[in-house]
Amino acid sequence: MLRFTMRRGRSLLDKPLEPIPAPISKVARAMLSDFDEIADKVNDVAAGLSHRFLDLREAGRWSTATLEEIENIGEAEIAFAQAAYHGLTRALRHLGAEEGLVSEVRTAEAYKAAIQSGAAESDRFTLAAALLQEMAQRGVIRDVLPDPEAEEAGLDEPDLARIAILALILWFLAERQGDEGDAEALLLTCCDVARALKADLDDSLEDSTRLRDLIAAYADKI
Q1: Among 71, 86, 105, 188, which residue's CB has the most CB atoms within a 10 Å radius?
Q2: Among candidate residues 137, 145, 146, 189, the one with its CA nearest the CA of residue 167
Q3: pLDDT tens digit string along 157-167?
Q4: Which residues pair with 102 in a beta bridge?
């Protein structure tokens, strides 16, 4: 999106400049040159990130991985972001979102921040709580459009985002049977549990200890 915006901005400026007085024309052409340079740099950075995510997406190894499995691989933040992208997009649809954007870059950053906080040194529920808080604070889900049923249930954009993240975290903690279909059904169950816990989530989201206890109370029951 950023690359498109930069290129679009340049195309709007890149018009015949002869009618413009020479000093203004010179400044405008310098601006066009700067647009080109910035757009090229953005393209290089974005392409590098896209390539790293694409490698894992093609491998398809992490779309049903648990949090423990992800922790034990190299570049865990990238695997986490790829798995989270799959889980969150599916969760949002199940919860009643017609549209929504999930940022893999912000999700990877959230994972790194949670790990760097030292949460992983405690237990998996503490790490899970840190991940949920980091993902919510960084806005890994945005531009969510609730469907009519979600609106009738009183779920707005922030609600859907928070509930989807909690569902994802519960899903990451749940045991798998090694079957992709089972993992998908398990994710939908986590969505329903997370939706039922909306009030508890709202009350504990800012308190890491209460949030950790909430996650621990339900993760092993799913």
Answers
A1: 86
A2: 189
A3: 999 999 999 99
A4: 141
